[in-house]
Fold:
Amino acid sequence: MGNITGLVQDDHFSEVPEQPHPTALDGLKLTYFDHPGRGEAVRLALRIAGVAFDDERVTFDEWPKLKPHTPWFTLPMLTLPDGEQLAQTQSLLRWIGTEASPRLYPTDPLTAARCDELVDVINDLEQIAKLELIPAFNETLAKVDGYIARHGAGGHAVGDTLTIADVKVFWAACFLSSGFIEAIPRGALDRYTHVQAVRATVGRLPVVRAYYAGRASDGTMPTYEQPFLDATKL
Structure:
């Protein structure tokens, strides 16, 4: 792994409480698989925001019955207290980021656009990995690392405060090095210094550390979740 010393700094989320506190987002139910796929970024955003939510985890056997009752036949999905549903990972992240206090989504339009840009590229990167396009995967990762070097600061992906872009980069750095996608070996992202700095920034948040420590201690953590736990020790 590249040397990330000096790239990570303390920020206003360093003392995020380990227990949820009241917010405008309370009363939500997140429905996703018991798996650290793309819905894990939404889980993390809610926890970092201090939201008290129902973390509903469905099995793959239950999915065919549930699928027709989702907005777009996909998960993750949020159910609001009034029964309304929201779906699509990036929309959920932006909404959570906007409603969180402190915000996880920039108020400055250009900075917000840069967050969206990076989040969208991470989605592309996931698809490239699934298609086993290894040269394109490595080239895109190098672009992501350079983008963070130009537009981020202090271990953040965009700007110098915590945003949904950090959460998404953290997720990618962990999940894409988990071995779940066989074409991408474990540790494939280790040499990307700025990506790893963002991973360390998010991983050291008290609420993130507590979440994965709890998952590990109660025996519910799938093998592919190990890189997330490892990130809390960087």
Remarks:
- The radius of gyration is 17 Å.
- The CA atoms of residues 11 and 161 lie 7 Å apart.
- DSSP finds nine helices and four strands in the chain.
- The mean pLDDT is 92.
